[in-house]
Write a structure and sequence with these properties.
259 residues; mainly beta; 6-stranded antiparallel beta barrel; 20 strands; elongated
Length: 259
Amino acid sequence: MGNCGKLMGMLVAVLAFPPAGAVAQDSHEPVEITAEQGLEWRQQDKALIAEGSVVLTRGVTKLQAETVSAYYRDSKAEGQQEVYRVDASGNVRIASDGTTGYGDNAAYDLDQGVFVLSGGKPRLEATDLTVTAAQNLEYWEHKNLAVARGDAVARSGDRRIVANVLSAFVEPGGEGKGKLHRVEAIGAVVITTSEDTAKGEEAVYDAASGLATLCGDVEIRRGDSVLRGQCAEINLNTGVSRLVGGGGSVGGLIQQKVN
């Protein structure tokens, strides 16, 4: 096999490397990989290929997939290596400090502390929060930030935010108990509750106050009644909406019930 060593037929294969440098999260934690089918060590490529119910752990992050490729490099410490990138495919699940991401594929940059989920309909879950995307979904561990692209949707309780791009900031918490802090939405934004539907080009939603601020051709509907303007503030907790600033005219149509 030349420079390629191969271990097959092992019930569990385990390797541990120091993680990538100081910018990486949990920089003193090792990377550990286990696999049920086998582990292929490609020394020339500086890669480890694990197959069959693979589990990779690093600090508070746990990645599970059918196939995992871990790429390493020589570290500053003599005689040691560090894993800097992981590619995963097949029923990918990544749990990280209160959030859990799912997708067909994942690319995990350990230097930056960010993983990108793609394939199928990638999603990220936390307490009372689900974020999905049609294209891909990034999660930045240092910022506790999920970025969903393409028909992005964030759901929290009876509230649903749809946009071309969504950025959801999550308050970290152990055992999958991260909570939504704020959502920033750009492009074809639609916010719906059990009673109202609001549209605009940009929006910011604060989960604690329930306040959503929209700008850009705003339209707010409740039943057959509608308000229109350039900017609006909507309190999703109280149901109170008001048009604010932004220039241009504002208008509304209140439909009366006919007995």
